[in-house]
Design a protein that fits this description.
30% strand; globular; two-stranded antiparallel sheet; 2 domains; 3-stranded antiparallel sheet
């Protein structure tokens, strides 16, 4: 299999309609889009849904790895997430919130569930999106490609 994108990297490019995006990683492809109510074709999850999916998946995987390493009887992890936009204040959005609700199943002690909550807040995606030193470096390049 030939890989268009280096391992650990992501490419996003327009496909089909203006908001439908082809997401390509080293081994996977999927679509992202906006709902029809926002002018999209609703061909895939919206960007904020993908961000929350990344946080939810990372949370669940981190808890699973930790419980496995500790030999704890964790049977199932379910993570529900929702996003609430902040209010516009002095030209900036403030108070934005992602609500994360984690359900765990298994014969876990109160001490173990308390520790799992601490560990959830240490998953790599959580640490990245809450890091006050996170910088997104952006460059814009002019391309001669035309739309497919």
């Amino acid at each position: 299999m030939s890989h268009e994108v280096a391992e650990g990297c992501v490419r996003v490019e327009e496909k089909i309609s203006p908001f439908t995006q082809q997401v390509t990683t080293y081994n996977h492809r999927w679509l992202a889009d906006e709902p029809e109510s926002l002018g999209g074709a609703d061909e895939g999850p919206a960007p904020m849904e993908m961000l929350m999916a990344g946080l939810g998946a990372c949370t669940s995987m981190t808890l699973r790895m930790y419980a496995k390493r500790k030999n704890w009887p964790l049977q199932k992890v379910t993570v529900d997430l929702s996003h609430q936009e902040g209010k516009l204040q002095d030209g900036e959005i403030v108070g934005e919130v992602i609500h994360r609700s984690i359900r765990v199943a298994g014969e876990l002690t109160e001490e173990q569930t308390s520790r799992l909550l601490e560990i959830a807040n240490k998953c790599p995606v959580h640490r990245t999106i809450t890091n006050p030193n996170l910088a997104i470096e952006t460059e814009l390049n002019l391309s001669t490609e035309t739309k497919d």
